[in-house]
Structure formats: structure tokens, C-alpha cells
Amino acid sequence: MRLRTVRLDETTAACVALPDGRLARVEKIVDGAPSDLLALLETEALDALAEAVAAGVDDTACVDPHSPVAAPWLRPRKILGIGLNYGAHAGDLGESAPRTSPASFLKGDHTIVGPGEPIVVPPGIGKVTAEAELGLVIGRTCYQVSVDDAMSYVAGVVPVLDQTAEAILLENPRYLTRVKNYPTFFSFGPDLITLDEVLSHGPLSGLRVATVHNGAVHRKDTVAGMTFSPAELLSFHSQVMPFYPGDILSTGTPGAVPIVPGDVVTCELGDGLASLTNPVQ
């Protein structure tokens, strides 16, 4: 399934993209379902939604499939990012990829913007980069889980654009929290793609992640090119902290691209599986 938050007049609504191209409001097809995606994840209602979609959806539940989209949700309990998880990107920063344990950082929800919303480059901070990433969306609470079990706690994936004030980072790598937390420095969406649909296109290890800058691919790699796999990342960090439904674990980038006002940046997942685009101002 593909789930998104759409703008309807003065409100937003959680919707599911139907196999026939229609777009249906979740609360109209599942009794008692909430009207926003984060609450849907928190109530662990994805299985009920899948059953309802399979049973057939009446037109009265549908909205214009071209309705504008918003960020899927705005208040995850945490956004956890991973640094230097591809060797090539580590080389961009003059570093080597960590081998014993992953490098990570937290981002506040004030950094979130949705598809098509501007990424704002603050004045006076020097070079800023955009980084396409595969985001894992947690579907149920997990804590101290094994690598073998970790992916069973993942509801699905989202394209991510994670921004960095790189000039400041190069001054001192301990500034990581500072350089990652300017407003608009985290975009995700438009769709939460459930893990079963992702895997129907092939194994996760073969999924392509690409940073695209002004229409040209800047850097790409597959999930297999990660130093630490998605399952390893989730298991490792779950030994320290619990993850909750709607939390996002952004798994690192194959390459960061410098951005300036007027640019357009895109995260591409797979060959047509998902795409997220934001302008820069």
C-alpha cells in the first residue's frame, strides 16, 4: 500500500492509493480509523486497512487523486539519522566509514517539510548540502530487538532529503546536532510505502537510492552498499532507545550535493518506486 496525507480545503486527511488509481480517505473505509497517518500507525491499523482495500472501496470514500500532498506527519517522537553509512560519502567529508558501530544523530520535528515545500538555506552559514536517503518508518514499538527480527517492526519506507550545514560540520565534527537542525532540513514523503509493497519489487538490498540535483543524478548506490544494513541500524539503536510508531530512521546517503537558492533536489528510490522533490530558496 501507499499512504499519504493530502490537503483538503482547510484540513488534511490520511489517504490510501488504491490499485485502480483512486485515492480513498482511510477513515471512510475502516471503522474507527483516525484521520491522520501518525495516529493510524500508533493504533497499528495497517492490517485492517489492507483488508478493507482488498475487499473493495466505494467511490464515496474517494477524493481527487491529484489532491496536493503534505508531509505525511509532523510530530514523530524521534527522527534518527545515520552518518557516513556509505563509504563513498564518507570520502566526500575526508572521513572513513565507521566499521565497528554506526554514527548517528537526532533531529527535531521543527526540521520537517513536505514534498514541494522549500528547503531554506540560512544566510551566513556557508556550504549547505542535500542528501537523498532511504527512511524506515517504525510500525510498532520496538526495544532491544535482534537483527533478525528488526525489519518486522518496520511499517514501510519513505524517501528522505536530509540537509546539512557542511561548512560548519567541517569546522568540527562534534557540531553534528547543530548542522542538522535548521528549519526545513528534513523533507520526507510523499508516500509511506508499506514494506510488503517495497519487497514485491525485489529485495531491499537491491533498492537504488539516488541524490538528484537539478534533474541530474549526482550520486547513487544500492542498499547493499551500506556499511550497516537497515536491520543492523534498527537493532543497534534499539539496544539504546525504544522506537515508537511513526519514528523515522534515515539510513544514510550515497552522496551529498551542495545546494543554493534556485536549485531543485530529489530523492529517488528504486527505478520509479518513489520520488521526493523540493526546491531550494
UniProtKB/TrEMBL annotation:
The keyword Metal-binding applies. SUPFAM superfamilies: FAH (SSF56529). The keyword Metal-binding applies. GO terms for biological process: small molecule metabolic process. The lineage of its organism: Bacteria, Bacillati, Actinomycetota, Actinomycetes, Mycobacteriales. Belongs to the FAH family. This is Fumarylacetoacetate hydrolase. One of its GO terms (molecular function) is metal ion binding. It comes from Mycolicibacterium agri (Mycobacterium agri). Keywords: Hydrolase, Metal-binding. Residues 78-281 form the Fumarylacetoacetase-like C-terminal domain.
